[in-house]
């Protein structure tokens, strides 16, 4: 009987007169089963005579829960409980996550405000999630860059003032001596005055070109021309200077003709700046070679020398304006430190790249590339 309550079926037993004598639910005792119910049951036959009926049924009386109902109900309860548990967990996780992110973010926001107000030295040290660490690293990089640019901006003004002062002092001194009669207006004196004026104008012109290039506003007079021929002309121009220093100057080109599209004067200027440096910094008996190569849609021009090379520490900065690793030496040789900055500006204005490779004591190689023009290009 107990099995009936917890098991799958309801069991009803009726006697030979169809009266219920046993019911696992105990509800129909004494009642008579209908013909239909008897038909559903199993007859109990003893010695060929029907002595009773056993009826296994799943129908449950009103108010008593069936197995399916019990199952559905327990599943529903479990789902609701699980839902509540998940909600509570998600809420807690959200709260802690928000606290972990909001804390560093508010620190970052403050640092950004201080940076915007001119506090260039702002750097943050924050530990936490990978994303936060990445954000902080990006912020620190940006701050370092801004600080560098700010320093460069300040230095630029100081450098320009410094570069202008030297020729102006010479001019002023000589003019005052002329006025006082201490110096005669001989042709050499006039020539030296003229030299200083030329130096000044070149400096101002260089600065102007550089600022135009850096602002990406350099007007380019584009034409298609033979680069090999243009390089050869510059080499011829430098040949006398090279011979004077006993330096071998060679050209290594893959052919007689490589057509490029660009501003011929400015690209020539790039080569003049690179070759000028190579000849200036390479000691006598050295070698300077120019190599032109065409490869995968671009042409590269290298200027290699056997000079003193550039220290690894200075390499990243040589293209910056007014940067001279050895100021006293370069000053004695007359450089302002603008040549490479201008070369870089001009090459980049043509959509090209420029870089340097150098081994101290072995030599230096500057290379720049520019896109090759299509031979059938329209302009
Ligand atoms: P400017 O070109 O304005 O007359 P500069 O030659 O000093 O002056 P850059 O041409 O910009 O300036 O060169 C920057 C510095 O890089 C030079 O002062 C020099 O120290 C170094 N440098 C450039 N080219 C070479 C080279 N071929 N070999 C060794 N050092 C070089
Ligand atoms: Mg130079």
From TrEMBL:
Boundaries of every HAMP domain copy: 99-151
Main subcellular localisation: membrane
Molecular-function GO terms, alphabetical: phosphoprotein phosphatase activity; phosphorelay sensor kinase activity
Domain Histidine kinase residues, every copy: 159-374
Entry's transmembrane regions: 75-98
Localization in the cell: Membrane
Alphabetical UniProt keywords: Kinase, Membrane, Phosphoprotein, Transferase, Transmembrane, Transmembrane helix, Two-component regulatory system
Pfam families for the chain: HAMP, HATPase_c, HisKA
Gene Ontology CC terms: plasma membrane
EC number: 2.7.13.3
Family matches, as InterPro entries: BphY/WalK/GraS-like, HAMP_dom, HATPase_C_sf, HATPase_dom, His_kinase_dom, HisK_dim/P_dom, HisK_dim/P_sf, Sig_transdc_His_kin-like_C
Recorded catalytic activity of this chain's protein: ATP + protein L-histidine = ADP + protein N-phospho-L-histidine
Protein name: histidine kinase
Organism of derivation: Neomoorella stamsii
């Amino acid at each position: 009987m107990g099995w009936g309550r917890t098991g799958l079926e309801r069991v009803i037993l009726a006697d030979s007169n169809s009266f219920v004598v046993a019911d696992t639910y105990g509800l129909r005792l004494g009642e008579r089963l209908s013909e239909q119910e008897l038909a559903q049951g199993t007859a109990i036959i003893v010695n060929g005579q029907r002595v009773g009926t056993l009826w296994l049924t799943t129908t449950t009386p009103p108010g008593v829960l069936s197995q399916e109902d019990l199952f559905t109900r327990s599943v529903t309860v479990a789902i609701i409980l699980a839902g509540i548990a998940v909600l509570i967990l998600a809420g807690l996780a959200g709260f802690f996550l928000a606290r972990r992110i909001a804390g560093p973010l508010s620190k970052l926001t403050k640092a950004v405000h201080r940076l915007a107000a001119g506090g260039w030295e702002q750097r943050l040290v924050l530990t936490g999630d990978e994303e936060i660490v990445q954000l902080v690293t990006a912020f620190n990089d940006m701050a370092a860059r801004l600080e560098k640019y700010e320093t460069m901006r300040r230095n630029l003004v100081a450098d320009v003032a410094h570069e202008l002062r030297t020729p102006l002092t010479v001019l002023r001194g000589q003019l005052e001596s002329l006025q006082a009669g201490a110096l005669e207006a001989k042709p050499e004196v006039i020539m030296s005055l003229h030299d200083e004026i030329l130096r000044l104008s070149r400096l101002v012109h260089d600065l102007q070109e550089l600022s135009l290039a850096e602002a990406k506003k350099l007007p380019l007079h584009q034409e298609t021309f033979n680069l090999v021929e243009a390089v050869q002309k510059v080499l011829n121009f430098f040949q006398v200077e090279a011979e004077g220093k006993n330096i071998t100057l060679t050209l290594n080109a893959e052919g007689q003709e490589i057509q490029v599209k660009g501003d011929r004067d400015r690209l020539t200027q790039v080569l003049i700046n690179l070759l000028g440096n190579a000849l200036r910094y390479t000691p006598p008996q050295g070698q300077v070679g120019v190599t032109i190569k065409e490869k995968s849609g671009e042409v590269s021009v290298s200027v290699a020398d056997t000079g003193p090379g550039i220290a690894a520490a200075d390499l990243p900065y040589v293209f910056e304006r007014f940067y001279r690793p050895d100021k006293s030496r370069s000053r004695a040789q007359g450089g302002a430190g603008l040549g490479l900055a201008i070369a870089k500006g001009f090459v980049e204005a043509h959509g090209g790249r420029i870089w340097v490779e150098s081994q101290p004591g072995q030599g230096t190689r500057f290379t720049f590339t520019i896109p090759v023009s299509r031979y059938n290009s329209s302009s």
